[in-house]
Amino acid sequence: MKNIFTILTLSITVSLVAQTHEITKHNGIKMEVNFIKTANNLVYYTLPQSAEEKSISQFAISQLQEKSKTEVKTISKKITLSGKADYNKVIVLKPSQTEGLQESGIITSFLGKTKGETNQSFLDEAEKRLKQNAALKGSPFIVIVSNKPKKLKAVMYTYK
Question: Which domain of life does this protein belong to (predicted)?
Answer without folding.
Answer: Bacteria
